[in-house]
UniProtKB/TrEMBL annotation:
Its EC number is 2.7.8.5. It is found in: Mitochondrion. Gene3D superfamilies: Endonuclease Chain A. It comes from Homalodisca liturata. One of its GO terms (biological process) is cardiolipin biosynthetic process. Keywords: ATP-binding, Lipid biosynthesis, Lipid metabolism, Mitochondrion, Nucleotide-binding, Phospholipid biosynthesis, Phospholipid metabolism, Repeat, Transferase. The lineage of its organism: Eukaryota, Metazoa, Ecdysozoa, Arthropoda, Hexapoda. This is CDP-diacylglycerol--glycerol-3-phosphate 3-phosphatidyltransferase. Residues 7-33 form the PLD phosphodiesterase domain.
């Protein structure tokens, strides 16, 4: 859709299935993701149960969505369930029962099958479906942030720095971990030089980051970087958690969520939580994290006040109104 059509909300899940293989990512399939747009990808091979789960999830989501035919005509996939002509209550209730009910059944089935499992890595899909009142992803993410032990380090990355008030409070007030945050430098922001209101978005993100850092200085556990690579844009998101006494991540979140207001309040999102005791996989996660962060330049309040980084007055005037839209 046109960029402004996305304001209300969109299907933001990125998921790729090939037989028994699953690719989880935050990337779309447009040209720049294969050339000069940085993102993350994790491939889980030969895992039929996970592939079957995601296949079923796509079917359930498709059944409560519109179907587009070769004549460019939209019709509801389920005739009596129209996303915007049905009453909001009836659509939300039936769609939620279908999609979330499927998830709960799959989780119960998986728990029963894994009672004797002795594997070293656990994979747990997380869903955020605000139009269907499913907020599992953001709830679990907050619990991860606040339950991290003192001495642990969380590297959190997002292409668009616009943390919700709940995430901000969790990081600054309720968590004991040290945080290393990575975001897009304005020159690596996909909205750079966009026409109209969208052109002011990079400046708004700088302002949001500066306001967060002002508060973060009081706790002394937060440092921030901006991804900057000539000719590239930045879209990677997720987190890596390294427990106290270790130098490699044992846990990661990967998927479509940017941890912002859109992800929590508007868009359909999917993340995958991965916990591992496998040393080789921990090395791979560390290598991925370091590959992203080595291209980061420190972000400070001094950087935010540079003349070229100050948002235009009209951006400051409108940014709070649009905060929940990007």
């Amino acid at each position: 859709p046109a960029r402004y059509n996305e304001l209300v909300g969109l299907q933001h899940i990125k998921l790729y299935l090939f037989d028994n293989d699953v690719i989880i990512s935050g990337a779309n399939l447009s040209h720049d993701y294969f050339t000069n747009r940085q993102d993350r990808y994790i491939v889980i091979s030969e895992c039929p149960s996970l592939a079957d789960f995601y296949f079923g999830l796509v079917e359930r989501l498709s059944a409560v969505s519109m179907s587009l035919d070769e004549r460019n005509t939209l019709t509801p996939s389920t005739p009596h369930l129209h996303p915007y002509l049905s009453t909001l209550q009836s659509y939300e209730s039936e769609a939620r029962n279908s999609v979330w009910g499927y998830y709960l059944q799959a989780a119960d089935k998986s728990a029963q099958a894994q009672t004797q499992d002795t594997g070293d890595t656990w994979v747990f899909p997380l869903l955020g479906l605000p139009p269907l009142a499913v907020n599992q992803d953001s709830t679990v993410t907050r619990r991860i942030l606040e339950s991290a032990e003192s001495g642990s380090t969380i590297h959190l990355a997002t292409g668009y720095f616009n943390l919700t008030d709940e995430y901000t409070a969790t990081i600054l007030e309720n968590s004991r971990a040290c945080f290393r945050l990575l975001m897009a430098h304005p020159t690596a922001n996909g909205f750079l030089a966009a026409h109209g209101l969208a052109g002011g978005i990079p400046g708004a993100y700088t302002r949001f980051a500066a306001m967060f850092l002002e508060r973060a200085q009081q706790c002394g556990r937060v440092a921030m970087w901006e991804y900057q690579r000539p000719g590239w844009t930045y879209h990677a998101k997720g987190l890596w958690l390294t427990p106290p006494g270790y130098h490699r991540p044992h846990f990661t979140l990967i998927g479509s969520s940017n941890f912002g207001a859109r992800s929590v309040q508007r868009d359909l999102e999917n993340q995958m939580a991965i916990y591992t005791n496998n040393g080789h996989l921990q090395d791979v996660l560390l290598s991925e994290q370091e590959h992203l962060y080595k291209l980061g330049t420190p972000f400070s309040l001094e950087v935010a006040t540079l003349p070229e980084r100050r948002p235009a007055l009209w951006v400051l005037a409108f940014m709070w109104f649009f905060k929940s839209y990007f």
